[in-house]
Amino acid sequence: MLYSPRWTADAVIDYTQALGNTLRGFINWDYDYIGPSNGSYQVSSPNYNDPAYGVMNLSIGVDSGEWEVSVFARNLLNNQTIILSPFLG
User: Fold this and answer.
1) Degrees (nearest 5) of the Cα angle 56, 25, 27?
2) pTM (2 decimals)?
């Protein structure tokens, strides 16, 4: 099937720590790995082999139960893998 990797893997760490009687601090880290796939049925196409790639995300915050404040970063390692190359031909 096009654009469907044979396998993917996810790693997640969720950590929560009490910060006094009413606040909780939290950290959420995840890394998503997407394996190689095919972007075309034609072996001669430059999109036939799409590379594997991974994305790391992180969020840190405080939760009171009534409100939550957090800071997050998506694609923390700045992965710039090109998944689909333009093909004019």
Assistant:
1) 10
2) 0.77
pLDDT digit string, tens, across residues 24-54: 999 999 999 999 998 888 888 888 888 899 9
Exposed, middle or buried, 63 (CB in 10 Å: 0-12/13-18/19+)? middle
How far apart are the C-alpha atoms of 57 and 60, rounded to whole Å? 11
CB distance 60 to 70 below 8 Å: yes
Q: Residue 79, Cα to own-chain centre: how many angstroms?
A: 10
22: tokens are 């009413």
Give every CB contact of residue 43 below 8 A, 6+ residues apart in sequence: none
